[in-house]
Amino acid sequence: MGLVTGACFAKLGNKVICVDDDIPKVEGLKRGALPFYEPGLEEMVHRNMKQSNLSFTTSVEEGTKASDIIFIAVGTPQKPNGEADLTSVEGVSRRIAKAMAEYKLIVEKSTVPVKTGSWIKRTIYLSNLHKVDFDVASNPEFLREGSAIEDFMKPDRIVIGVETERAADILVELYRSLNAPIMITSIETAELIKHASNSFLALKISYINAIANICERVGADVTKVAEGMGYDRRIGREFLDAGAGYGGYCFPKDLSAFIKVAEEVGYDFELLKVIQRINNFQRQQIVEKAKNALWNLKDKTIGILGLAFKPNTDDMREAPSIDIIRQLQQEGVQIKAYDPQAMKNAGRILHNIEYCPSPYEAAKDSDALIIVTEWEEFKNLDLLRIKQLLKQPVIVDSRNVFAPAKIKALGFSYIGVGR
Ligand code: UGA
Question: Would you say the C-alpha torsion 314, 319, 322, 327 has a positive or negative sign?
Fold first, then answer.
């Protein structure tokens, strides 16, 4: 998020300095090597580096001194109890405070629990060596991995949480050229908009997954149910794709953090807990489907297509593939896997897997294929070739990539989600 935001602000004509403590990461970026895959980002970073709009350093001091606005985009990982770990936010706030020699606007962009803004303010106030003026703001991001640049450049809305007009003016000016609706609120409200948006999107996903389970029991088609619901403008079709459930670095972590935040202020946010439960159940269901299709799993070989938590990213954090593959391995299944981008990252987490150079290699001599991530290239597979390569023509499609009638007509035993 930091790198995408930095590169996009540079593209808008600002001078951007990206700061990180990770020396190899910064050295790599200085040479133009990106630490992760995001469509369009590499080219954007290279172009803006060439135009001297984008640079990299490990020095918070250097970044602070040279900047008018400082975005905090450090990680807020999950603690074992579900709370967000804000140590990095605190640490970097203190370092910024010590380096400030004139007015700075410090903007929290990391997803943080409500009230973090006031903690940042207090921390900076206490370490403000030169007693300079400063403002703290909250400017939550709504970028999705895989389409982060587009989401930045064409936002549905920009939320600015501030305490002063000066801070509001600076941020409005910064975003003016995007021509998006800008909402100015208090810092707490801005923080809550982010939490409430992410958990609402997770709710939509769990809701449709619950509907999918009913569809399977009554012989209905969840994709049609979602379409029918989606025509209602009050509901909308987006985020109603049933499947293996949500993963990634945001929804799982944000939901846990929001449950904790609610708990701390004395509210038991039961709804969020149910969203989590449905999501976990959904992953287990995929393994159950494989079991139902193959009878005994022990000593079977299964080809997995797609490992990343969603298409167009190499991100494996909280990917449904991890749970699904581990459960299958526990049942004694041999795994062959293919993903267009995520195999390197997957290799660090998932072991005893044969990583394959193509979907066809993953299908070869496997007893079944499970589609876990709906990469575009899977939609165009040569299914007759896949059928010849598989030991038996079984496909579990956890993202409803294929049309059931068509694939069944090719002679496959096909199991989707909720249809
Ligand atoms: C999410 C939000 O969509 C962003 O607005 C937000 O800025 C970001 O979190 C964040 O907090 O940083 P992201 O996690 O990148 O973005 O990806 P999404 O596109 O939201 O997908 C999340 C998960 O939900 C994926 O595993 C995806 O496969 C799953 N999903 C999504 C479904 O299972 N069904 C759907 O209909 C949509």
Answer: negative
